[in-house]
Amino acid sequence: MISTDAQEREEAVAALQVPDLTVVLPTYNERGNVAPMVEALRTALDGIAWEVIFVDDNSPDGTAAAARDIARKDPRVRVIRRVGRRGLSGACVEGMLASSAPFVAVMDADLQHDETLLPRMLAILKTGETDLVVASRKAEGGAMGEGLSTLRTWGSNLANGLAQKLLKVSLSDPMSGFFMLRRAVADELAPKLSSQGFKILLDIVATGGGKLRIRELPFVFRERRHGDSKLDTLVTLDYLGLLVSKYFGDLVSVRFLMFSLVGASGVLVHLLALRAALVALDLEFNVAQTLATFVAMTSNFLLNNRLTYRDRRLTGFGMLRGLLTFYAVCSVGVLANVGVASLIYDQQPVWWLAGTAGAAMGAVWNYAASSVLTWRKA
Description:
13 helices; Spore Coat Polysaccharide Biosynthesis Protein SpsA, Chain A; alpha/beta; about 55% helix
């Protein structure tokens, strides 16, 4: 039995080595999993020079503080606390770029991923014949286990199928969040990766354009020990936005696609509200139209705040201020829409061309102005 003092001396000596491997753990409200996760890595990576970077999105439960408490005794543990920005993909990119090791692994901090695979993944990369090793729940021998509900398993299968068909991604499990790659690959691809979304692996593989040498290893997805899953139903829309963006070669940002998708939903909300105001409230059309407009703008604001700008999500009084600025931005957007449409129609009276140009102008204005005024970076 090794004494605590002896163990700390061993850890101090190990920490002086230049790490071969950096394990990046994006976190939000994972305080209860921090200590068990570090202990699991110590056991799994015994004999390997390693470091772990917790990239925490300013968790209110004190996740970063818990990691720092361990870092004071074990210098192999590092912490990046992100304030004013959120999102799993962005956290992963930031952690990979902060690595000083030639190899970087990304995995969840909730102990659902099998850390005992890490030495094998590292050994495969060190042969020089592979750029990316993916732990797959779909490879022969892998399984979803008890970590996903039936509904989430079905959704994961659907998402995998869409990625494979639309982006020609050959991975059996492109939705996996457990992988290891050469840091040089991360450095090269990072400027082209989206800071939004939850599926960083799909982004990496799609951005790699079929040039990455990939190997898959099976693993069984385990149950979460502490805390709650951060995935919600709106993540599906975010994922679809990433697919479309990559399908068209990143010509349009994922955020703008999300903003546009929310705007499209606002048309339906507007029509439903207008119908309700005319029939149920028996209002005059102009009054009903005005009410429906504000209902649609409010719906768009709430959805954008939760999805499109989830990394800059407004709360409390900031949410009220944001709603008022969003009203103002959209009001100017209507003027831009009508102005551009009228100008084009006067020059060339083609209704659909003028209408489309006006709508596009309004959408671009609303997106650009709300990014600066409503969801401005902290």
